Amino acid sequence: MSNSTILFGKMKKLWKFMRMKEYDEVMAHQREQLEELIERARTSSPFYQRLYSHLPEPIPSLQQLPPVTKPELMANFDDWSTDRAITRESANAFMADKTLIGEPYLGKYLICSSSGSSGHRGTFVYGPGESLYRWRTVLQAGMLSWTNFFNKIRWLNISATGDHFGSLASFTRLEKARQRSPFMRMAFESIRTISTVTPLQEMVEDINRYQPTLIFGYSTVIATLAQEQIAGRLHIKPSIVSMGGEWISDTDRQQINTAFHSAKLIRDAYSSAECPSIAHSCEYGWLHVCSERTIVEPVDEDYQPVPPGEQSYTVLITDLVNRVQPIIRYDQGDSVTLRPDPCPCGNPFPAIHVMGRKNDMLRMRTADGAVKQLSPMTFYVLLDLIPGLRRWQVIQNSPTSVRLRIETVSPELDAQTWETVYQRVKDYFDRQDLPMVTVERAPELPMQDPATGKFYHVRVKFEQASSLQQA
User: Average pLDDT in the 330-354 region?
Assistant: First the structure.
């Protein structure tokens, strides 16, 4: 088959996806894709074959399938995949080489790791069909249009770096595709990534020089940049601001809208390493499920459905696109509320609010009495890759101190692992011009929140308002 024939087939398929807008058409597509996904899982994944062995054929409804969790999938990694060439050994070997970030695993797959926000890290592999749905999502969200071909995009990604994280791997692959494709170079002038651990002043100066037209980043990072813009230190006029990955307050959202008021589009996204496109925001602040590729089920602690209007304990995600590592009724760990009535924006697809795990934004007091805001996502970059570290939590217990709860893989590695953790966190505070911040180890291990049963990585455990106002 010639390259032109393959390209024509891909463009035809993309056009079909793009024109699919009517509710009935999308839901028919969803049912068809779900049937194919379950069939693929039952016939090609040894893990799902065992899991579904007691169920009838065909399966009457999605709700009859048992949910799955990240630890469960990671423990059955080799048997989970539908391509028998995908193994834990080969995946680990590939991801150990950081020069391969964004390169195709086994010659055809995108592979990435999750940040461990649920308390467990994961490795996820996507098939070639993933890119078609990502472009459809980008185009339908209004992030790209024909005018971009006359006003070239400078796309800035602010994310975790240093490993095969989903955002970094995707943007690295996108930039390499841009360099190869004259068509993409017509639309994109450049695509850059800045690490979340970059000192804020250095980050602001770099962004001022780059002058991005499109910014993508963690919600807390975008909120921090909004404060810098309002304070007059950041001077940019992006056309599009896209954020996600974290819960932020309504006050933070208002500041983002104020700071970047000239932007044509400010959008929020609900996504994860497990499912790259779950939902996207509308002008009324609701996240509308990407129903052509994702099914979202708000459930209680026993995985029973939660009525619309009530906050769920967790949410089950089914990714209709990934046939390589099927994600079917996957426990995402986030708390969501399904809108009980039609959204006034006119979008007919399910609308949700996502509470997530609500990691706290750290607000540290500087030597001159000012307050410096630090994104919780920074600590994933600092700590997730440390050998010997199984789990961690950062607890801010005063304006100038943090306590670290850590769990190591073995007692023999405890002292060495703690020294590495301490040095990375202390060096980070020093680079942020916060040398007075003290870092100490907590005697207790990382633990779930007793009120919610959720695992939070970054928490503030003091009264911020009063403490930060003190001289």
Answer: 92
Residue-wise pLDDT tens digits, 260-278: 998 888 888 888 888 888 9
Region of 303 on the Ramachandran plot (φ > 0 left; ψ -120 to 50 alpha; else beta): left
The residues pairing with 401 across neighbouring beta strands, listed in sequence order, are 398, 438
> For all residues of the chain together, what is the average pLDDT?
85
Whether the pLDDT of residue 133 is over 90: the answer is: no
Identify which has the larger pLDDT, 141 or 29: 29
In three-state form (DSSP H/G/I as H, E/B as E, the rest C), the secondary structure along the chain is CCHHHHHHHHHHHHHHHHHCCCHHHHHHHHHHHHHHHHHHHHHHCHHHHHHCCCCCCCCCCHHHCCCECHHHHHHCHHHHCCCCCCCHHHHHHHHHCHHHCCCCECCCEEEEECCCCCCCCCEEEECCCHHHHHHHHHHHCCCCCHHHHCCCEEEEEEECCCCCEHHHHHHHHHHHHHHHCHHHHHHEEEEEEEECCCCHHHHHHHHHHHCCCEEEEEHHHHHHHHHHHHHCCCCCCCCEEEEECCCCCHHHHHHHHHHCCCCCEEEEEECCCCCCCCEEECCCCCEEECCCCEEEEEECCCCCECCCCCECCEEEEEECCCCCCCEEEEECCCCEEECCCCCCCCCCCCEEEECCCCCCCEEEECCCCCEEEECCHHHHHHHCCCCCEEEEEEEEEECCEEEEEEEECCHHHHHHHHHHHHHHHHHHHHHCCCCCCEEEECCCCCCCCCCCCCCCCEEECCCHHHHHHCC
Domains, the chain: 10-354 (3.40.50.12780), 362-469 (3.30.300.30)
355-414 tens-digit pLDDT: 765 678 898 999 888 888 888 888 888 887 788 898 899 999 999 999 999 999 889 889
End-to-end C-alpha distance for the chain, whole angstroms: 72
Instruction: Name which of 64-68, 117-121, 212-216, 308-312 the model is least confident about.
Output: 117-121
Q: Alpha-carbon Rg of the chain, whole angstroms?
A: 22
* Encoded tokens for 456: 């939070």
Least confident among 85-99, 337-351, 417-431, 451-465: 451-465
